[in-house]
Amino acid sequence: MPPPFDALRPEARSLSTSRSNVFRSLSAVKPPGAQSQPHSAKTSLNNSVILSGPNQLLSNSSSGGAPASAAPTPCGPLTAAAAAATAISKPSARAVYRPSVSSLEVRQLLGAGGFARVALARDCESRIFYALKIVSKRSLLATKPELHAECLLREKACLEEMCHPFIVKLFGTYADPENLYFLCELALGGELFRVLGRLEKLPQPAARFYIGSLTLALAHLHALEYVYRDLKPENVLLDNFGFIKLCDFGFAKKVVDRTYTQCGTPDYVSPEMLRGQGVNQAADWWALGVLLYEMLVGFPPFTDAKGSDLKTFSNILRGELRFSEADRQESWARLVKSLCSVRIASRLGYLKGGAEDVISHSWFRNYSWESLVNRTLEPPWQPRLESAHDVRYFEVEDNARDMIPDADVSEELLAQYQPVFDAFVL
């Protein structure tokens, strides 16, 4: 007899501990005779902490309160949901202002991971605040240098292509003798993970807002032939107005067929990745279904109640979704089932209609997609900020320089990877 529904609930989220990627980017060999499956609709190298800052700036001043209304989207207004889902903006639509590295003043540390940290930075000339991702060259090359350098270049290339209101903007990259830098938008609302951690579950209108925003962000990524591969609440930031910004593109990769690298976070990985069959954009839609379930039920659908990753993986491979009697016939439950189909050939988002199939689902009936993408829809939660550098929604660390220990790397190895470092200098 199966356990009661409430017995499936894992331990409560810890707001101080983000879920980590346990795969460590292990390259899987393509199985002999593996069949390629074309994409039917073109539409961190380390622990998965926030390694890309985020969002809309409060103002061009170092002080002052939050503005009363949202700023226009960085890519201009879009008039239809389908256009919003697949729009690929031209580089000319991007922000052109790029502060000089000498004008950047590093403030508090916002987050740290294996060989990188993210800090609040202020441009002394414009007095605008940014999120500055700082990557130690020596730590980057300390282990698996070829893999880590390749992934860092992929992250840079991906961010340079992105231009979407729900994806973090990259303003520029830099290099000095010790570090590489990504200058990104600052999202002062913190992680969606922390919002979920404060609540047992979300109301459906709030979940619809966040899932709808992520649907459009994923559609934009997929239209550019990228697969994100690490969708989870820790990688979704909220900007100063409460709109999402998808960040941390350390695992994002341009994929036309499939990729066989094992990466991701246990609760959200797809069954095809666990089977070593390779993944493509379909894996992102699976993760979106997991996230929708988590928002409305209070915990991910396949996570083992006792925290065993192996049992979680077994649950994912079976793909058995459990719903309470009250939720079983809800339209959102049907959407979860369609997104979390074990068979890729029947997974919503990867069918012939692509993202438009998700947008057209009954759970989104009469939803104002145009208002969402143009940022005129009111977010379900808005951060209360007192200034353009209010970091109350982050666990700020003062020991920014001590978080990433120096690695023992030879000068010869540093010289070997100098072409990689040069790519960060315009």
UniProtKB/TrEMBL annotation:
PROSITE patterns the UniProt entry points to: AGC_KINASE_CTER, PROTEIN_KINASE_ATP, PROTEIN_KINASE_DOM, PROTEIN_KINASE_ST
Recorded catalytic activity of this chain's protein: L-threonyl-[protein] + ATP = O-phospho-L-threonyl-[protein] + ADP + H(+); L-seryl-[protein] + ATP = O-phospho-L-seryl-[protein] + ADP + H(+)
GO CC, one annotated term: cAMP-dependent protein kinase complex
Top enzyme category: transferase
Domain of life: Eukaryota
Domain AGC-kinase C-terminal: 365-426
Domain annotation Protein kinase: ranges: 104-364
Record-given protein name: non-specific serine/threonine protein kinase
Disordered: annotated span: 1-20
Keywords on record: ATP-binding, Kinase, Nucleotide-binding, Phosphoprotein, Serine/threonine-protein kinase, Transferase
BP GO terms, sorted: cytoskeleton organization
